[in-house]
Amino acid sequence: MNMGRTAIIIVSYNCCYFMQKNLESIRDTVEKDSYVVFVTDNGSDDGVREYLAAQEDVVLIQNSDNRGFACGCNQGYAAAKEYEQAEGVVFDDVFLLNNDTRLCEGSLDNLRRVLYSDDSIGAVGSVSNYAGNEQQLEVFFNTPAEYVEYGSSLNMVSELSCEERVRLSGFAILIKKQVWELTGGMDEDFTPGYFEDDDLCMKIAKAGFRMLLCKNSFIYHAGSQAFSQTQDAGELLRSHHRLFYEKHGFDILKYAQPDFASLSQLPAFEEGAPAILIVGCGLCADAKYIKSVLYPEAVTFGIEPDDALRGVSGRTEAVFAGVKQLSGIVRFPAFDILIVDDELLSKMDKEEINSIYSLCKRDCQVIHKGGGSSVDLSCVKLIIWDMDDTFWKGTVTEEEVHISSEMDRLIRDLSYRGIINSISSKNDWDTVARVIAECDDLGDFFVFNNINWLAKGPQIVQKLKLMGLRAENTLFIDDNPRNLQEAVSYCPGLMTASPDIIKRLVDHVSSTPMSDPELKRLKQYDILERKTAAMEYSDESAEGFLYDSEIKAVLIHDCSAQLHRIADLVSRANQLNYTKVRDDEAALKKLFDDPAYDCGCVKVKDRFGDYGTVGFYALERSENRLVHFLFSCRTMGMGIEQAVYRYLGCPELTVIPPVAAELDRESEAPWVSFVPLDEDEDPEKRDQGNMKSILLKGPCDLDSIAGFLDLPQMVTEFNYINLKGYVTTGQNHSVHLWEMAHLGDEEIRDILSEAPFLIYGDFESEIFDKPHDVVCLSLLPDAHSGLYKNKRTGNYIVFGSRNFDLTDPANTGGYITGTMQNHGFPFSEAVIRDFSEKWEFCQATPDDMLLRNLEFIYENAAGAPTIILLLGSELPFEGENAEFAGHEPVHRHINELVRDFVKDKDRIRLVDPNVYIRSGEDYVDCCDHYSRRVYYEMAMEIMRIIRQV
Question: Residues 167-193: pLDDT tens digits?
Fold first, then answer.
């Protein structure tokens, strides 16, 4: 093996943390003197440029602006050439590496071993958790460290496993130096990105070199999605797609992958070297897969009349322009297998067709390409099975049939990997059910079955509609080609295959980890099937059925525990994915931790069962804009997306079509109820939350929040209508709390005699007498209420709004008529005049008094509870409400005061409504009254705190 140096070329643009981890991984896994790192920084402004400049083992090229990936790579190579001359070293290969990757032990070493295993190899690439060009492995872990650990174990496999490819992804590609120079490097016309790595691969192939994917070289890739999150990403993708076509003369997306629908029909060859002719071979993706994966001893020939395609594939494979040219080389029947593109065949004359078949052996198997799409098992969510001569050998109506243990095991293994199985069989239901029943509970692993004598195409269309799945994610397996063709005619995009694909399925599940060991996905489709059956036999209207379904939704803001499920939704959801942003777990975790974003996942259940976590949103608070808004297709038709959208207040949303359900700012889905998380489902949470004693003290904010908590040991002290018929509120104000602990009965009775709108209840609370684990106290009363001082005793009381001075004669009429909030007390001029003689208005609680009161509550609340303080809202209310006018700056001042106060108080937690209020639409009629969504999210935050106590 060549042991020369590698020039590692990285293009950097911000992402300092990723860059640091990238370099650390290189230093940890690659022999020190075997490489030099060249980083082109494209005008970063987040500190990464300064970090790189301080790294002694990095050669830094600094651009003042962002010149894109292609230019950055070319600059990196130019710097490597200068380094060779200056330092007297020689680089043998070039390693293009994204800055958001991490090498694992053996990642680069194994690539080198493959690259130099044959002179014909020009470039090699790695597999990853996040990669294009079919290099992504379906593995899911919670942290980068787990991915790196997995990669290191995969890379330790001693025997190299490779697959020859037509193209490789540019996130991590190792290229021989002389090959790079032959290609001329990256084409900068593809700046800033998309198709530049495809273009490079075509130039490598045209230079006569092969490209291999090294399956035991795993590299972790965060996948920043920089382009996909820009508004012009779609247009850039389309523009560079056209640019590639104009440059090379063909669509790379059409020819880059093997046609697995055809390859799955290849017969088994135990020994020998089959000769295979592929008519319409394109870029020879089929031939390369056959020889590198299926039959290493096979001999392949291709016919490709398109000059542009043949100009690439003919440099590494035996490809001919037509059968006449091929006949000059092969003069007798030689081919065991003929794979023929039906579209190309239809354009040939009879003589050409006869010439092709004259080169095939008598028993040659003919496989027709066309009709179905390629089978990509990584995309399969549903497999539809024919039964006779497919799932089992024989025809059940003509002979005795049995299900093999291998097929029994395969169905269970597929289910444990989240792949659903269904039956489409022209047969008698009872007969098929009897055979399946011989395998214990195997029947429970099939859903939405069609066992009848009707045409399969229309039934598959209806099946996918009911299941909310796309044809592109469905594989139909049938031994009858006519059934396959019919299905595709009804379902364009449907993947089809003969039973020969079963071997591939077995290999697929054996190499794929279990992703659904609890069969959650199967259970959810079982629920959906029962629900569909109930709907079919229901006399209700569609809307009536939805109401009858008792749909309940839960919004959960602690998304970290659901990271894996959310990442899965983000990567897979299409029909109800409104933004199409494909963030990976690392990017999602960053969103969860960023206070600038409000993130939530959605769980749904109805009377048919629990659907689990089916939705996710991420909302940028400052712009009130959704960057993620998506739902699983299993909620199709339930109106969940519309209900959540309205619940969030219809924030800004740029919809990337297509979507299966449009959103409407005016429409509602009233059959969906939003409820708190059912704590009884989780004994641990019940012990940590429900079994604690909680005291809630406050006005309307806590009263509204309490409905979402429903804790069995919850005591509430809210505003209430007393026995005299007017409202009591003082018991929740910090001044009254301090006084009820410091004033005797005589002093309180003296206050009541001079303030007849108060009762003894204004000075009563459990807070100092009965111990609670948690006390939740709202600070709204201290910001809102008017404070009055007794001229004789110096004692204080609170009443009404700070905006309406009861002692001001100008307000007398308003208090008497109730146009000013009088809490229902029957004021008269005499009562107000008498009160005004004895009390003076102090507007609101002074800062020092508020802090004194809070300090006393903290030190003296019974049982030393955790105290949750609810702050006030600061966003201006744009409507008119004189009672609460000007409260927002008061809230802002008190909030700052309290935040400073609690810094050394380890038993105080703050719940800030400003985290959840996104716009004026989140207010009801004033800045103290919030929307139902805000109260719900505050309730969930309170529950989170309670569980941590």
Answer: 999 999 999 999 999 999 999 998 888
Between 264 and 234, where is the model more confident?
264
Query: Rounded CA gap, 469 and 593, in Å?
Result: 33
Q: Which long-range contacts (CB under 8 A, 24 or more apart) does 395-400 make?
A: 396/427, 396/431, 396/432, 396/435, 397/427, 397/428, 397/431
**What is the reported pLDDT for 481?**
64
Q: How far apart are CA 75 and CA 55, in angstroms?
A: 19
Distance from C-alpha of 890 to C-alpha of 885, rounded to nearest angstrom: 10
pLDDT score of 269 more than 50: yes
Q: For 474-524, write each residue's pLDDT tens digit.
A: 999 988 766 776 787 788 778 888 887 888 888 888 878 888 888 888 988
Express each pLDDT in 430-455 by its tens digit: 889 889 988 888 999 999 999 988 88
Residue 827 DSSP SS3: coil
Sign of the C-alpha dihedral, residues 503, 506, 511, 512? positive
Q: What is the pTM of this model?
A: 0.47
Q: Does residue 787 register a pLDDT over 70?
A: yes
N residues, the chain: 949
Kindly give the interhelix angle for 456-467 and 520-536, rounded to the nearest 10 degrees: 110
* Identity at 369, one-letter amino acid code: K
**Residue 677 in tokens:** 């998380």
Distances (CA, A) of 59 to 84, 501, 766: 12, 50, 68
Q: Cβ(198)–Cβ(124) under 8 Å?
A: no
536 pLDDT tier (thresholds 50, 70, 90): low
CB 135 within 8 A of CB 197: no
| CA–CA dist 864, 862 (Å, integer) | 6
pLDDT at 681: 43
Run of H or E including 613: strand 609-620
Name the more confident of 617 and 715: 617
3-state secondary structure 390-434: CCECCCCCCCCCCCCHHHHHHHHHHHHCCCEEEEEEECCHHHHHH
Strands (E), 133-236: 162-165, 172-176, 210-221
- Nearest residue to 629 via CA among 713, 569, 689: 569
Burial 322-339 (b: 16+ CB within 10 A, else e): ebeebeeebeeeebbbbb
CA atoms within 13 A on the CB side of 311: 9
Strand segments, DSSP code E, in 183-270 are: 210-221
CB atoms near residue 405 (< 10 Å) = 9
Mean pLDDT of the chain: 87
Quote the CA–CA distance of 101 and 129 in Å, as a whole number.
10
Give the residue from 45, 61, 144, 52 showing the smallest Cα distance to 103: 144
CA-CA distance, 260 to 265, in Å (whole number)?
9
3-state secondary structure of 567: helix
Residue with tokens 């700070």: 802
Q: Alpha carbon of 200 to those of 70, 76, 114, 186: distances in Å? A: 10, 16, 19, 6
Q: Encode burial over 69-89: b for 16+ CB neighbours within 10 A, e otherwise.
A: bbbbbbbbbebbeebbeeeee
- Cα pseudo-dihedral 391, 395, 401, 407, rounded to 10: -10
Residues 6+ apart with CB under 8 A from 146: none
Per-residue pLDDT reduced to its tens digit, 359-399: 888 878 888 775 333 577 888 999 999 999 899 988 887 78
Residues 6+ apart with CB under 8 A from 149: none
Residue 535's pLDDT is 61
- Confirm if 714 and 943 have CB atoms less than 8 A apart: no
For strand 839-843 and strand 785-790, is the pairing parallel, antiparallel, or unpaired?
Answer: antiparallel
Neighbours of 792 (CB within 10 A): 10
Between CA 471 and CA 456 the distance in angstroms is: 14
Determine contact, residues 502/409, Cβ cutoff 8 Å: no
Please, which pLDDT band fits residue 632 given cuts at 50, 70 and 90? confident
